[in-house]
Amino acid sequence: MSMKDYPALILNADYQPISYFPLSLWNWQDSIKAVFLNRVHIIAEYNSEVSSSSFSMKIPSVIALKKYIPISKKPPFTRFNLFLRDNFSCQYCGDFFNSKDLTFDHVIPKSKGGKTRWENVVAACSRCNLKKSNLLLSQVNMKIIKKPYQPTNHQLQFIGKKFPPNYLHKSWMDYLYWDSELEKN
């Protein structure tokens, strides 16, 4: 593995990941710097080390902040958070998409007084978005799968657990509650 392949999972002082999606990670340099600044506890380490002429230490794989950082209850209204809230699925046809293949749609179009806010915007595929255009759902005989709502950060974290990242180090598993079997019989 190259040095860039040693990210550290960052846990808040309550030993919960600061974020699941995207997963809260620091590169190895930032994690070692935080150790030296006495801002974190090392929870787990990789087998690999970094060293200088007078010092050597294993690279941290899981670190916990010493000071708790409160997480806002209201997530920012971003395209990514909207897609996450809607499980990366079109709220009209129900198909799943990569974020690059999704758009967002105003349930009540802006041209008809609709606002750009959580309660009026949904993830939509291009085909459904074009079909609906700037019309009301009743005008195009379409239905919405799930009524849009403003999620909490806790709800987005819960949804994010369904989308584990491409890389998960074994030392992280006790802190990430992915839907995996804990013990084989």
Number of strands: 6
Can you summarize the main beta sheet?
4 strands, mixed
CATH topology of the largest domain: DNA Binding (I), subunit A
Radius of gyration from the alpha-carbon trace, in angstroms: 21 Å
Net shape: elongated
Total domains, how many? 2
Description:
The chain has 185 residues and is an alpha+beta fold. The protein has two domains: 3-71, no CATH class; 79-153, DNA Binding (I), subunit A (Orthogonal Bundle). It has helices at 28-36, 79-85, 126-132, 153-160; strands spanning 8-11, 25-26, 40-51, 56-65, 102-106, 121-125. It has a four-stranded mixed beta sheet. Strand 3 (40-51) and strand 4 (56-65) form a beta hairpin. The radius of gyration is 21 Å and the shape is elongated. The two termini are 33 Å apart.
Question: What descriptive keywords fit this protein?
Answer:
185 residues; alpha+beta; DNA Binding (I), subunit A; 2 domains; two-stranded antiparallel sheet
Q: What's the gist of this structure?
A:
With 185 residues, the protein is an alpha+beta fold. The chain has helices at 28-36, 79-85, 126-132, 153-160; strands at residues 8-11, 25-26, 40-51, 56-65, 102-106, 121-125.
List the helices and strands and how they pair.
Layout: E1 8-11, E2 25-26, H1 28-36, E3 40-51, E4 56-65, H2 79-85, E5 102-106, E6 121-125, H3 126-132, H4 153-160
Parallel strand pairs: 1-4
Antiparallel strand pairs: 1-2, 3-4, 5-6
